[in-house]
Structure of Innexin:
Amino acid sequence: MLIHHFLFYLILPEQVRKYRKYPHCQSCVWKLRVPSDPERQPRCPRPPDEAATSQPHSRSRKPRGRVRFHLSTQTIWSHATVIILIAFSLLVTSRQYIGDPIDCIVDEIPLNVMDTYCWIHSTYSIPNRFEGTNGKDFAHPGVGHEEVGKDTRKHHKYYQWVCFVLFFQAILFYVPRYLWKTWEGGRIKMLALDMNCPVISEDCKADRKKLLVEYFANNLHSQNYYAYRFFFCEVCNFVNVLMQIWLMDSFLGGEFTTYGPRVIAMSELEPEQRNDPMSTVFPKVTKCEFHKFGPSGSIQKFDGLCVLPLNIVNEKIYVFLWFWFVVVAIVTCFALIYRLCTILMPHLRFNLLRTQSRLSSQESVRTVAEKCKVGDWFVLYQLGKNIDPLIFKEFMSDLSKKLNGKDNMV
């Protein structure tokens, strides 16, 4: 017991350790001292005796520590994409700064000097040397004899910035999620406090339901701003993914938008007919020129051949990102269409709320849906995801009576 109180005092902050006797619930011994705001209500821990004797029903959800919103799109945006981009950035960084990202071959110039120079000042390839037979028309794809006046050079300057660009993209993908977490402020979590647990004392449950009903009745038609901020973050998600595609296309010299279709088309050809687009965008062998003064003071040019093993990783990363970004853009577009329909179609909002509160009577759900605006419906819909179904059923019944002017709730 002494260790328990020590850990309680050590771990919890001071404002949480200030507790007092809970007046409405005999089985709930202590209550955290919180402001009287109806959005920040006290936690009612489940009593041990009832936890041992009560039998939770099969359709009840387990208590959750985090609030659930639209799980699929939020998971894609705030978790999966950010984690993927950060992982790719770390992978490229490890190969770039720990391994050997470039190896150049040239006579009379120290190799470490040539490697550093070509890495800093970029390399180049000849676009006309990507077509033909390897070993006959050119030594390597993009490397061959340069005819003055006929051939042009394509410089590759992106490879030293790939890790930074990927990390910057991860930050941009997290911005809408960060904005929503800041604006949301834990409202749904506080409203659903202790309501996602099926094993809860009747007094505590009744007290929580009453406070929640009073909150909705007093704040009816005043929650649109809360919902529209969430909708704004969804629009930011779609604009963000389009800007990310444009950013990568500009970063790779206009090659990213057609990168995926070209790779698919190449895979369907015979091996001897393939012109690998990955070698065009991410060449493994390039050329580099180094100039220095000779013994007589004249400028000498040294033509070096550089191997870029890092591009083997880069080409696979950007092939995956092309397909991933297309999927994310399509999912986000459908999410925006769905959101627009929920804003413009009250009947759709009723059906969605009816599905979320499937245990409630249709009359109660219809009464609540007709009285609510978009913001009220949005908060109710999110609460339905985070509250135990049986408790949400009772809450919807009490709320419909309250909105109809019936305060004689049991």
Observations:
- The longest strand covers residues 285-293.
